Amino acid sequence: MNHHIRKKWGLPGLLLVLSLSGCDNGTHGGDHTDIIAQTYDVTVNSTGEGEVSPTTNSVSTGDLSTFSVVPYDGYRIHSVSVTDGECPLKNVTINSIDDGLVNYTVGPVSSDCTVNVTFEQSTSPTQPARLRNVVSMTVSPNDGSGGIIQLSESGEPVTSTNFYLAPGESQTFWVEANENYHLKDISVDDPEHCSIAVALISDEAYSVKSILGKCEVTVDFEKVRAPLDPLAPQPLGPLEYYNITFEEVVGDGKVSINPLPIRVPKGKSFDFSVTPVEQSRIGEVSGYGCSVSTTTDIDPYSTSYYTSEPVESDCTITVEAEKYYTVTISHRSEGTINNIQVLDKDGNPIVEPLGSITRESIDAIHKIKMHSDQYVTFEAQSDSGYIRSYASTLECGLDSSNGVYKTNQITRDCNYYIDFTENCNGKPFTSTEDIQTLLDNPDDGKGTTIVLNDATLRKAVTNTSGNSGTEYTGLLSEGRNITFDTSCVTDMSVIFYNAAAFNEDISQWDVSSVTTMAAMFYNANSFNKDVSNWNTSRVTDMSYMFYNANSFNKDVSNWNTSKVTDMSYMFNYAIDFNKDISNWKTFSVTNMSAMFMGARSFNVDIGGWNVSNVRNMSSMFQSAATFKADIGDWKTSRVTNMSYMFSHATHFNADISDWETSSVTNMSNMFEGTTFFEADISNWNTSNVTDMSNMFSHATFNKDISKWDVSNVTDMNSMFSYAIDFNADISKWDVSSVTDMSSMFSYATDFNRSISRWCVSEIEIQPDDFNTNSAFASQSSFQPQWGKCPLRLLE
């Protein structure tokens, strides 16, 4: 090959124009020189399968020229090359708005210049840089005086070019030095992005392989030293050069060598680096005809640097590289991984495996690099209360025996996860899959014990009946004879939620670890089995436990409730329940709201309960129609909410005169519909109450409450509505904070007291139905003066 790039010589870069002025009055004016910048044309040609714009651009010396390339549908850019002139290609800029557009820049421009754009067919999207990696290739010197490159053996010679390669794809290129030059080396900017190798098809052919990301290649030509004058002294003699050849990499690994030295002057050393790529490691690097050594500590997994001794002959460099695989062993924190060993195929320990075994995340992850003919053994030790299990990728096998694990011979990256799962008192938990098998096969598993945790218990109690509203069939059915080991279950909340037909024997369940039974039998309308011997000593939450379990009425008197904090809605509408629970320990309970709401049979003496920590008693006995137990000694100093507490508890009439109510803020509907309640509550401290709406609505109450401090109450809506017996003197109440008195005395047919001195400045006009059909409705002098405060006027 003898392709030499055509050098185009034009005018000098700067044109000097000398302009002499005329003579005035016989004297010379000043001489001056105008400097005019030379302009050059940049011409862009293409093969026609796309558009380039502009095709010609005139720029000044040293400036840059930019043009855009858009391939037609079905094509993509193959290469962009400078074929004539001095205007090297710059970096590529991708238009982020139009995916088909790529901008290119050449310069600095120092001569007329020709750029050639080629396209190739493609079924993939038109944007090459998004799918493939750009390769930029330039010569040095960049004016082309040293030599040229070609992308095919008979292709057009260029000094710089851009083309695209997919990861792993290679492009052959040819190099030719001009007269008095030779190829010095070929280098890449980042050997992890691409690699250079000698192509075997020709002495002047090389290949570039894309690995990762953008690749910049420099082909460096060096001027040959001319022979000295034979008549002059020649102490050095003519400069001799030796060829440096790199053998194919020995082994199954891949490396990138940079730069790729080609020829070296006699007596000179050369430097190069070796970078392992594609998950390889470097073995030995050696020279035949010259000696090479490392200049830094060797790390077989990253770039290593080498230098030669002074070259005295042609030299061949051999690089050994091998593939490696990474074995990752990770595990839960409830155990440890120990005694990791790498063994060869004969079972002999590898004293120095490929790199040290690294540990990350506080010993939870172990990574080992190894060959395909090796395998790993290790030990797994679980903490107390846990047992070993493992999971691995399908392609990577693992055998185990008594806590010692052994992998198959490694042929790929492998990840092993050692799962230390909880066990129940030394017994492994029954898996969800095994429980499903029992559910699917009604005739299997008779006499079996299944060991359950919080999650699998919910699976195990599944009703398999096609009519779950009226029939229960499942693992708890009497004929199945399956024992439930619940000794490690901590959460039994909602397990029989809406199980309307469930009424199986669960008396032998071990509930000693359970902490919550919230809504356990919620709407379990049929359930009424013996649970008297349950150990509930750890339970903290029994809220909604028997909500609407309207058949339940079994003995639970011996339950240990000392840790329960929430009993809200516990027997809500459990309409049959009336068992003795007077000895329950309730000192930890803070919430008893709606506990016996609608429990119309309940009338047990619970006056001895310690309720000193209860904050909420709202609706506690609402609609508990038969409840009339003496609870007068309860310590209620911490209760803040008593709304609806005895609403429609029609038989309640206990003496609760000594209750401490100073913390209560809400007494709305408290005695609504209590047709028997006549207890003396005149001394109650109501100073913090803000809501008394409907408090005595539809009640028969008629006791003295004249001394109540109602100064903070804001809502008295319907307070005495339909309180047909009430006629107590409340004329001195301070109602100055009340904003709502609508229907307050509506149908209070006995109330006939003057409240004209009330301070009602917050209510401008008489509220709706304030005194409708009350005894004092027609007595205007008894009415408040709306919008005014008579007491303050007197002051």
Automatic annotation (TrEMBL):
Q: What is this protein called?
A: Lipoprotein
Q: What is the lineage of its organism?
A: Bacteria, Pseudomonadati, Pseudomonadota, Gammaproteobacteria, Vibrionales
Fetch the InterPro entries from UniProt: DUF285, Liste_lipo_26
Species = Vibrio sagamiensis NBRC 104589
Question: Pfam families this protein is in?
Answer: DUF285
The protein's superkingdom reads Bacteria
